[in-house]
């Protein structure tokens, strides 16, 4: 079973196998729910596509959908 050790600052690294299985990437919000039996449940909240639009750098290149069509002759 994957495990992690907490640092003195209260930080942990989620093991790679868990990150990959749950598709956790930079910017993923993690929620913790405390259970009555003293355990905790971790829940990943993935951002919707609408929430991340505009967060990717474009290097100043802005093309319309029509310009992206491979048949138009435009090239990056």
Order of helices and strands: HEEHH
The helical percent reads 10-25%
Characterize the largest beta sheet: strand count, sense, and whether it forms a barrel: 2 strands, antiparallel
Question: Mean pLDDT, nearest integer?
Answer: 81
Give the termini separation: 46 Å
Q: How many β-strands, per DSSP?
A: 2
> How large is the share of residues in beta strands?
15-25%
DSSP helix count? Answer: 3
> Which strand order does the major sheet show?
1-2
The structure class reads: alpha+beta
Based on CA atoms alone, the radius of gyration comes out at 20 Å
Give the oligomer, counting copies of the same chain as homo and different chains as hetero. single chain
In short:
The chain is an alpha+beta fold and 76 residues long. The chain has helices at residues 16-22, 49-52, 65-68; strands at 29-34, 40-45.
Write up this protein.
It contains three helices and two strands. The protein is α+β, with helices and mostly antiparallel strands and 76 residues long. Strands 1-2 form a two-stranded antiparallel ribbon.
